[in-house]
Amino acid sequence: MTTTQTLHKTLKDTFGFEKFRTNQEAIITTILEQQDALAIMPTGGGKSICFQLPALLFPGITIVISPLIALMKDQVDSLKTNGVQACYINSSQTATEQQTYIEAIQNHEIKIVYIAPESLSYLENLFHTLTLSLIAIDEAHCISSWGHDFRPAYTNLGYLKNRFPSTPILALTATADKATRQDISAQLNLKNPKIFISSFDRKNLSLEVRPALDRIKQIIDFVGQKPQESGIIYCLSRKTTEELAQKLLQQGIAAKAYHAGLDTKLRSQTQDAFINDECQVVCATIAFGMGIDKSNVRWVIHYNLPKNIEGYYQEIGRAGRDGLPSETILFASYGDVIQLQKFASQGLNADVQLAKLERMKQYADALSCRRKILLAYFGELVTENCGNCDICKNPPAFFDGTIIAQKALSAISRLKQLEPLVVVIDFLKGSKNASIYEKNYQNLKTYAVGSTISWQDWNQYLIQLMNQGFCEVAFDQKNKIKLTTLAHEVLFSGQKVQLIEPKKVVIEKTTSKEP
Ligand code: ADP
Ligand code: ZN
Known about the structure:
The protein is an alpha/beta fold. The chain contains 21 helices and 17 strands. It has helices at 3-15, 24-32, 48-57, 69-81, 95-106, 124-129, 159-163, 178-187, 215-224, 238-250, 264-275, 309-316, 334-346, 350-365, 370-377, 390-393, 402-414, 421-429, 434-437, 455-467, 485-492; strands at 37-40, 61-65, 86-89, 112-115, 132-137, 169-173, 194-197, 205-211, 231-234, 255-258, 281-284, 299-302, 326-332, 398-400, 471-474, 480-483, 498-500. Strands 3-4-2-5-6-1-7 form a 7-stranded parallel β-sheet, with helices on both faces. Helix 18 crosses helix 20 (455-467).
């Protein structure tokens, strides 16, 4: 049998599937060739098969590192149902239980073992005496403080490559922008990893941004119109989740709060009630959702602005996993921006996190197709507008902004893509700042080519160009502005660019006293 035939047979015989989904076969083949890989695949895209199937074909054992202790049992049970010898080891077990599994591993009775990163250290010697065929690292973005869900327990995983240099590593995640992808690969010491990025487009999700005025009333109206449809409301603080759930309950809406401060039993009750359609609405912090397998979530609302686009996209992605039309609404408020700026500037990697927050704010303020912005953010450049976002449904008036775009993009190019947004604008404006004179930028061609347009307008035009995917912020390089391949078409192939007149933005100061 050829490799392809073996793979298809195993897929059918063990997992009962007829064909592979996008990238699954290519990832599996890479792993079987013992090469490292990084797979970015949306939630529900089918990441598990990518390590479970090769695990069956390899002679030795596969370890799967996952932070989601609560899900390990389900995953292992479902593998066992398919006839795969699997077990898990984490802190929820007694020492005796752990010992039983360790013995099973020593006796070569196990093909796949799920392990929480915290539990990995004392198993290390054991693995050294066995053939370790594959290391899969699920939710790999947790290793990066540039991502949106950094977990300290993940930071030590970089040693795995040094300890087991000949074992291939497969890192998997549902969200990672370019900077986070590079960081994951560096932190895990991956060797020339092949990177697989599945399409992030979720056409069935409508996208909408609303000013955050009277959010609660808007939510009650919205939910009131769809009494049969369940959804998630993401809030920034634990307190807000509880207050909001209370207000919805008062309106007769079956709502519950969920956050990491509630006790484990209550949390799993809420989760079960939601999955079994007994609770219509969960008001939650971002602690809710990772790994929740409910396909008919019909809507996701962001009560507060998320802290970056990676998190936002992952959270709205929990709606409509069954492929049916689902709605997402983001409430944008100036107060949230201020609050999030404060958090970001006090946390790890403040510069990167602030720049990511700025990109999130620009998304909320944007006046061009929102899906294009999201896809461009993850490196997928599309030229068509989506038709399923608030901007596409109610488009602002566009004008031919090709000349403006050419000026801006050639300025970025003249500055050798080495400068952040403010310097690009200073250069276009012909400013006499130190940032210009120190590097003699005033002598470059096209300096001051945009002096008749105001600084604020340039700022908005550049953001529009970024939102349309012509340029991007390199978070990992001091926020320098870089050109994308689409920019080359504008500069060299006569591609036209549509812009809109700069005008006031969505994020306004809110006055109402809401939680
Ligand atoms: P992820 O980890 O990416 O969120 P999973 O691995 O849990 O996704 O897969 C999501 C669902 O898709 C599961 O129910 C799984 O059984 C199913 N699935 C995965 N691969 C295939 C396939 N090739 N054909 C049909 N269903 C698949
Ligand atoms: Zn659109």
